[in-house]
Write a structure and sequence with these properties.
The complex is a heterodimer.
Chain A (H helix, E strand, L loop, with lengths): L2 H30 L5 H19 L3 H18 L7 H23 L6 H13 L8 H8 L1 E11 L10 H9 L3 E7 L18 E11 H7 L7 E7 L18 H22 L5 H22 L10 H25 L1 E3 L1 H4 L2 H12 L3 E6 L4 E3 H22 L3 H6 L6 E10 L2 E8 L6 H10 L11 H6 L22 H10 L3 E7 L3 E9 L4 E9 L2 E6 L3 E5 L6 E4 L2 E6 L2 E7 H4 L13 E7 L2 E7 L1 E9 L13 E6 L5 E5 L1 H13 L1
Parallel strand pairs in A: 6-8, 13-22, 17-19
Antiparallel strand pairs in A: 1-3, 1-4, 2-3, 5-7, 8-9, 9-11, 10-11, 12-13, 12-20, 14-18, 15-16, 16-17, 18-19, 21-22
Chain B lengths: L2 H7 L1 E9 L2 E6 L3 E6 L13 E7 L2 E7 H4 L12 E7 L2 E7 L1 E9 L18 E7 L2 E6 L8 H13 L7
Parallel strand pairs in B: 2-10, 5-7
Antiparallel strand pairs in B: 1-2, 1-8, 3-6, 4-5, 6-7, 9-10
Classes of the chains: A alpha+beta, B mainly beta.
Chain lengths: ~650, ~170
């Protein structure tokens, strides 16, 4: 096979393998939470395909490395070895290391590095086979050393996130005697190519002094996704000044940084390379193109024959063409819509790592992972969420003993929830932790001269203060948060997408950060309902079922109507009343009762009938008009007219208000 | 600035539209496009003069009937009935008028204040009038067409937006 041909397959292999690694990671985490034995098979299969593929596509190092992991998994699979926390931990690090390898493979760099060597030994050790002399011990010794070499190469966009490399270097200087040598290789050749808002420099930093690796890694914690970082201990030989540096295995902290960089790189790569599209969408496109071709050939028969008798047919053909084109356009737009699950999926691992590090017990709940949003929004919402999740675990949730003292269960809950609400995407990060400390925030704000005093400030106004640049009330700066870098970046990133961040917090009970993003492209599945000649879209997710009732099944009670459905009485909302439609069917037995669920309660929605199911591209009414109660947005039907999308929860509230009035 | 520039700056163009046998001018910079009347989708809880929304190349745009807005008698829509799409403060909306006639150059010093009496339309929505020969054109203040009542409604809608349950 030619080299170019192989390279093409390598790319496919890498993409597939990265997915395999994601599967391995999520399965490992599920296993850690007490998942069943089938997961082990899943992990084994993923590792096995990577091993096989790596050998075929010319990555022997990767193949032999994965082989070690596979052997360990095989022992677990065949029941020779019980799986425990340490093995899961080891395999998770293997996954990280493989990600690093794939990143290097894509960049065309040598695959093996110190981390891989170290892990290979650990994997071998876990299986009780011969440990290469000194392998593990050397690693232990590396955690503490007298001299370190730190290679720090910020990504060009690092400055944009509010991180200043110089500040980090100064912080490093506080740890010991520091010498930094800048690297100019990434400087553009001409002045014209110099982008002043980007960081083109890198540094090799020598740090002397009794420093722990973790301390160095901590300095770079906030930027680990935004730089390439290598921390290596120097083996001080004879002359400390010009010691030739023997690189040694790198410990877990750097490993994490490595994984972060690899992930960032992978994401950057994925942006330009591919989008995964569900087969349904592709089928829809093929259908549309097929119809377009038929329409085209039908129009083609008019070539040169302008006969007045056929005008009607021509018009019909043109209308069809217009409709297909519009549908094609919308379907193509729909390809950009991806479920938010791809962003959510990174959090189980992150939450696990951070909570372990901080000695907190955290249960992560994910809700609404299938909520679709535009790919561009999806890519940009990740970083703000990472900040919020880190903050929630570090500041929000308390340690188990503090929770017990406050009368809560040891296990803190962190909830990530995504939903469509009123033509917006709402992503909420909430915890049941300590909440914001109003007094501390006010004190800090007064000290920094932001406000004169806390008097007369609403809780919202106080909460808003934490979005000020550099604002932090953390008494001790931890390596996770508290440096005051973050909330302002979160707000700015979200504002760039045209969204807002709001906080609700109750001291002692928890806080919730809500990111609201305007949505121009979201697609929902809906049923088209007819009411008095008008058409409304009812979201499929809120529909329980639809029934035809006899008039006597509906009883009038004070202020409304009720009907019996599966043993419970549900209130009736007549859509024609709620929306004031004329000419609608009023007799219960002639229309249709659609049982819908919204805001946790079930109601019967009375409509004339249901026309059919369709995907609706949600358009905002607010962009040009205003919010309408009971309507979450609008969509454009196949004939080009506008149909409103019913917001069940809003409708229920609207009805409640009417009754009260 | 040269005199030439200044005289240009002091002149603006207005699209003139017909409404109940009177002529109104709409600042041409606010006009985005003119389209024939097409049926719209009614929206609930809207003021009576908001006819509904239409699909403007994928954007949902509200349409108001100028006659109803100004409290004039409703008229059957005809072949000359047009929807003028205007942009005010970044928002688009359509205005249904009886017909459009032409574009008028109006020097700023030819705009006179509207007398308090004698106009069908509330002077609140007018920024002045101008006369060219026999014609008298009332210049509309498009910024105010969706205001002030609508601004109030917007305010009223906001509590609903924050009507989310607190953290338990």
């Amino acid at each position: 096979m030619s080299k170019a041909g192989l390279a093409q397959f390598q790319q496919v292999f890498i993409e597939e393998s990265l997915e395999g690694l994601d599967t391995m990671e999520s399965s490992l985490l599920a296993l850690d939470d007490g998942g069943d034995g089938e997961l082990v098979h899943t992990i084994f299969r993923a590792a096995h395909s990577i091993k096989g593929g790596a050998a075929t596509f010319g990555f022997p190092e990767m193949s032999s490395f994965t082989h070690e992991a596979e052997s360990l998994l095989d022992e677990v699979r065949s029941g020779k070895r019980a799986i425990d926390g340490s093995i899961i931990e080891l395999l998770l690090r293997t996954v990280d290391c493989l990600r690093g390898m794939f990143a290097r493979a894509q960049a065309g760099e040598p695959l093996n590095d110190a981390v891989a060597e170290g892990l290979r030994n650990e994997l071998a050790a876990a299986m009780g086979r011969g440990i290469p002399a000194g392998g593990v011990q050397a690693r232990r010794a590396e955690d503490q050393a007298d001299a370190w070499t730190v290679r720090f190469r910020p990504h060009p966009g690092m400055l944009a996130s509010g991180n200043d490399p110089l500040r980090l270097i100064r912080e490093l200087a506080g740890l010991g005697e520091l010498r930094a040598t800048p690297e100019f290789d990434r400087l553009p050749a001409t002045l014209a190519g110099l982008e002043p808002s980007e960081c083109h420099l890198g540094w090799t930093i020598t740090l002397r002094g009794p420093v722990k690796r973790a301390d160095i890694a901590a300095v770079f914690d906030w930027v680990e996704d935004e730089c390439d970082l290598a921390i290596e201990a120097q083996h001080v030989v004879a002359k400390p000044a010009e010691a030739p540096i023997a690189t040694a295995p790198v410990a877990a902290a750097a490993n994490v940084a490595d994984a972060g960089a690899a992930r960032a790189q992978r994401e950057a790569g994925a942006e330009s390379s591919s989008v995964r599209v569900s087969i349904d969408k592709i089928d829809g496109l093929i259908n549309l193109v097929g119809e377009l071709v038929i329409t085209q050939s039908m129009l083609d028969t008019f070539r040169g024959e302008y006969d007045a008798t056929r005008v009607a047919m021509l018009e019909q053909g043109l209308a069809q063409l217009a409709r297909h084109t519009r549908e094609l356009q919308e379907t193509v737009m729909g390809i950009r819509m991806l479920p938010i699950a791809s962003v959510f999926n990174r959090f189980p691992r992150m939450v696990r790592d951070i909570s372990q590090k901080l000695g907190k017990q955290v249960k992560l709940e994910l809700v609404g992972e299938q909520t679709e949003l535009d790919k561009t929004v999806l890519e940009k919402i990740g970083d703000p969420m990472v900040h919020l999740v880190r903050n929630a675990i570090d500041h929000g949730l308390e340690t188990p003993d503090k929770r017990r003292a406050a009368g809560k269960s040891d296990l803190g809950t962190l909830k990530l929830e995504a939903s469509h609400r009123g033509g917006n995407i709402v992503v909420e990060v909430s915890d049941d932790g300590a909440g914001l400390n109003r007094d501390a925030i006010v004190a800090k704000a007064v000290q920094r001269g932001l406000i004169a005093s806390g008097e007369g400030l609403s809780d919202e106004a106080v909460a808003d203060l934490i979005f000020q640049p550099g604002f932090s009330t953390a008494a001790v700066t931890t390596d996770l948060s508290g440096r005051g870098v973050g909330m302002d970046v979160v707000r700015r990133n979200v504002a760039d997408l045209g969204g807002t961040v709001t906080i609700r917090s109750t001291q002692g009970k928890g806080s919730a950060f809500t990111i609201t993003l305007p949505l121009t492209l979201a697609i929902i599945d809906g049923l088209t309902a007819a009411v008095g000649g008008e058409r409304y879209i009812v979201p499929l997710v809120s529909i329980v079922e639809s029934v035809q009732l006899k008039p006597e099944a509906v009883r009038s009670v004070a202020g409304g109507e009720l009907f019996r459905f599966r043993g419970e009485y549900l209130p009736v909302i007549r859509l024609h009343d709620a929306f004031g439609c004329d000419n609608a069917i009023r007799a219960i037995d002639q229309g249709l009762m659609v049982v819908v669920e919204g805001d946790g309660s079930r109601v019967g929605l009375f409509v004339d009938g249901l026309i059919g199911q369709q995907q609706a591209v949600v358009k905002s009414l607010e962009a040009n008009y205003r919010r309408v109660q009971g309507v979450s947005g609008a969509t454009i039907l196949a004939d080009g007219s506008v149909a409103l999308i019913v917001d069940i929860a809003g409708l229920v509230r609207l009805q409640g208000r009417r009754k009260a009035a | 600035m040269s005199d030439n520039h200044r005289s240009e700056a002091l002149q603006s163009q207005y699209l003139t539209v017909n409404l109940a046998h009177e002529e109104y001018g709409v600042d041409i910079l606010a006009v985005r496009e003119i389209r024939g009347w097409t049926p719209v989708t009614r929206i609930p809880q809207a003021p009576h003069y908001v006819l509904g929304v239409l699909n403007l190349r994928g954007a949902i745009v509200p349409v108001i009937d100028m006659r109803l807005r100004f409290g004039l008698a409703r008229e059957e829509y005809s072949a000359t009935t047009v929807t003028v799409i205007v942009t005010v403060a970044g928002r688009n909306f359509g205005v249904v008028v009886d017909a459009v006639s032409d574009v008028l150059d109006v020097a700023d010093d030819a705009i006179r204040p509207v007398p308090d009496m004698g106009t069908t339309v509330d002077t609140e929505y007018l920024k002045g009038l101008t006369a060219t020969g026999e014609r008298m054109v009332l210049l509309l203040d498009v910024d105010k067409l969706l205001q002030p009542q609508d601004a109030q409604m917007l305010e009223a809608a906001l509590p609903a937006a924050s009507d989310v349950k607190a953290v338990a």
